[in-house]
Design a protein that fits this description.
Layout: E1 9-12, E2 17-21, H1 32-38, E3 43-47, H2 63-76, E4 82-87, H3 89-100, E5 105-111, H4 123-131, H5 140-148, H6 154-161, E6 164-167, E7 170-173, H7 177-182, H8 184-188, E8 196-205, H9 216-222, E9 223-231, H10 238-241, H11 243-256
Helix pairs in contact: 1-11, 2-3, 5-6
Length: about 260
């Protein structure tokens, strides 16, 4: 049985609270551009999910546990309710949290993700990271060369290599690769059943296949107050590809559902 723990977090700005949740292999820096934008008017809480960034490592990794981690972290900050924004896996944590603690959620924004179970889209990335021989790595360039044998896209490699840390004994992973691998089926899985009748916005990357029309039934089964926006000409990394549009959509939705 896994126990919830307080996540590593960073708070910027003041006002109504907005939580930002990153995706798989990421950390709290991923949505920092959005965080800085919102922090002019809101209290922004950026968190590292368990087994990511500077948060604790655990052998367990499922959405029920991750929703509890977020609840424990908000308790620590004495925040009773917040707007919850998440990208990819972070969007699933946001949905799970809203379905579990609806009274603690002012609004939800899920960026390029739906509540459904997915085919194992990241299995090749996990295999590539596991294949990386850290004993042969004396620099990031070494690591990049090894990864390039499995992953063509330089941007993806750079993103993944942000998880390499160096100490006196050489390089090691900051993510808990073992648990991400062993729990990958749960990470790819659907969020819980239930209902959240507050406002939720899905933002789709126009060229991405993560949020599709045939997910509509699964969305409607859980959420009744749904809006969808599409950012054309973006893939799954919509927040990085078109940040101005992405940030504007998020800000407008949160403003519409603010209490002040």
């Amino acid at each position: 049985m896994s126990t919830a723990q307080i996540l590593n977090y960073e708070v910027i700005g003041s006002g109504e609270p907005v939580v930002l949740l990153h995706g798989l292999f990421g950390d709290l820096d991923n949505l920092k551009g959005l965080g800085r934008d919102l922090s002019e008017d809101y209290q922004v809480i950026l968190v590292d999910a368990r087994n990511h960034g500077d948060s604790f490592h655990s052998d367990h990794m499922n959405y029920a546990d991750m929703a509890k981690d977020l609840a424990a972290t908000l308790d620590e900050l004495k925040i009773d309710s917040a707007h919850i924004v998440g990208h990819s896996m972070g969007g699933k944590i946001a949905m799970e949290f809203a379905l579990t603690y609806p009274e603690r959620v002012r609004s939800v924004i899920a960026a390029d993700i739906s509540p459904v179970a997915y085919d194992p889209k990241h299995r090749h990335i996990l295999e590539a990271l596991k294949a990386l021989d850290l004993n042969q790595v004396n620099s990031r360039t070494d690591a990049d060369k090894q990864l390039a044998q499995h992953i063509d896209t330089k941007g993806v490699r750079q993103f993944l290599l942000k998880n390499l840390r160096r100490d006196d004994n050489g390089y090691h992973w900051r993510i808990n690769l073992e648990t991400l691998d062993s729990c990958y089926e749960e990470i790819s899985g659907a969020v819980r059943d239930g209902s959240y009748d507050g406002p939720i916005l899905f933002i789709k990357g126009g060229d991405s296949n993560y949020l599709m029309n045939d997910h509509a039934d699964e969305i409607k089964a859980r959420f009744s107050q749904v809006e969808v926006k599409i950012i054309e000409g973006t893939g799954h990394w919509l927040h990085a590809e078109k940040p101005r549009i992405f940030n504007r959509l998020v800000r407008a939705f949160i403003e519409n559902h603010s209490r002040t």
